[in-house]
Design a protein that fits this description.
It is built from no helices and 2 strands. By secondary structure, the chain is mostly beta strands. It has one domain. It has a two-stranded antiparallel ribbon. β1 and β2 form a beta hairpin. The chain is elongated, with a radius of gyration of 13 Å.
Length: 44
């Protein structure tokens, strides 16, 4: 099992503004499961 708790991710966009893409996310993946994180544009 993989467990992630309270994950935060941000980056600076082209205009120099901070963008938060994950805020306090939790993820639990059991053995044999396949997981993908996909954004609104379909990339991930």
């Amino acid at each position: 099992m993989i467990a992630l708790q309270h994950v935060f991710k941000s980056y600076t966009d082209a205009e120099g503004e901070p963008r938060t893409v994950l805020a306090g996310a939790d993820l639990f993946v059991e053995g044999g499961e396949l997981v993908a994180i996909v954004g609104p544009s379909g990339c991930g």
